Amino acid sequence: MTYDLHIIRRFLSGYFVLVLGLIVFFVILHYVEYIDDFMDRGATMKDVFLLYYPNYIPEIVRLISPLALFISAVFLTGRLSQKLELASLKSAGVSLYRLLVPFLVVGVVVTGYMFWFNGWIVPQTNQVRLAFEQDYTKDAQGQAEFANIHRQNAPGSVISVNFYERNSKTATTVTIQSFINGVMTERIDADRMTWVDSTASWKLIQPTVRKFDLDGNMTQMELALIDTTLSILPRDLARTQGDVDAMSISSAKEYLDSLRRTGANRLGRPLVMYYSKFSYPWANLILILLAVPLASIRRRGGQAVQLGIGLFFAFIYLALMKLIEPFGYAGTISPLVAAWAPHVLFLILSLVVMWRVNK
Fold it and tell me: What is the C-alpha to C-alpha distance for residues 7 and 15, in angstroms, rounded to an integer?
C-alpha cells in the first residue's frame, strides 16, 4: 500500500507539471498564431488574457489530459524499469498487473472527473471562448447556416427561410406551408419573421395568408403582422459547428432532439461532437493501459527511446480520432462509430500489448 501511494504521488505530480507546461506552450503558440487577428479586429490585451485565454484553458485541459497522463506514466514506469526497480518487484512476486493498480486508480478517477468536466464545465467556458472567436478571429468555428433553411415545424407543416440573421433573430422571405394527406391547405408568406423574447413567439411582418379548400379554391388575406407560436426556436434555424461544444451533455441532447424533430439535415458533425463527450474521457484510461506495459521493457537508449516509442503510439491514437471524425461528419460511417472506434481499437491494442509483455 505504501508503494502504491508513492507511485500515485509521483504519477500525479508528473501529470500536473505536464498539464501546466502544455497549457503554457499551447497559449503561447496560439497567441503567436492569432495575434494579427486580435489586433486587426480591435481585441484588447485585457480581453485576450483576462477573458479569452482563461476561458480557453478548460478546453486545453480537456484535450491534453490524456497525453499528459500518458507521458507521465511512460516517464515514471521507464524510470522504475531503468533503475531495475521493476525487476526487483517482479523477483519479489509483484506482477505487472499488480504494479498497474495504482496507475489504474488514477486513470479511473481522472476519467470520471474528465467526463464531468467535459460534459458540464467546459461547455460553459466554451460559450465565452466561441463568442470571442466569432468576433475577433477570421476562422472561427464555422459560420451559421444563414441561407436556404428548411425545417419541419410540425407533422404536415414546413417552414422555409431565405436568410436568417442569428444576432437579431430575424428571418427574411419566410414561407410556412401546411399539408393534410399531401394536399396543401394553407400557405403563409412573410417578408420578415422576428423572435420576441418576452412572449417566446415569432412575429410575422406583412404576411400574406392563402387558404385552400378541398375543391382547390383559394382565399387570400394580406395582414400587417401575425404573432404566432411555432415549435421551431431561434437555435433551430441557425447552427454553427461549435454549438454542441458550448452545451452540456443534457442541453446537447435536447438540442439534437430538436434538430431531428424539425427535419434538419447534416447532423453528422454535431452528433460526433455529442458522442465524443462520452468517448473522449476514456482516452485518459486507455493511454495509461498502453503506457505502462510499453515502458516496462528495458531498452537500449534508456528512457528517451521509451518516450519516443510511447509518443509515437499516442500521436497515432490522437491522429486516428481526427482522421475518422470527418467520415462521421459526412455520414460515410455512423457518428457513433466515428466517436468510439479509435478508443475501442486502442483499448484492444493496449490489452494485446499488456498480454504480450513479460508479467
Answer: 12
Q: Is the predicted pLDDT of residue 131 greater than 90, yes or no? A: no
The ranges assigned to domains in the chain are: 2-139+269-356, 147-238
**Of the candidates 346, 293, 294, the residue with the CA atom closest to the CA atom of residue 318:** 346
Tell me the pLDDT tens digit for each residue of 248-282: 999 999 888 888 877 777 889 999 999 999 999 99
The two most distant CA atoms of the chain are separated, in Å, by 94
Chain-centroid distance, C-alpha 62: 10
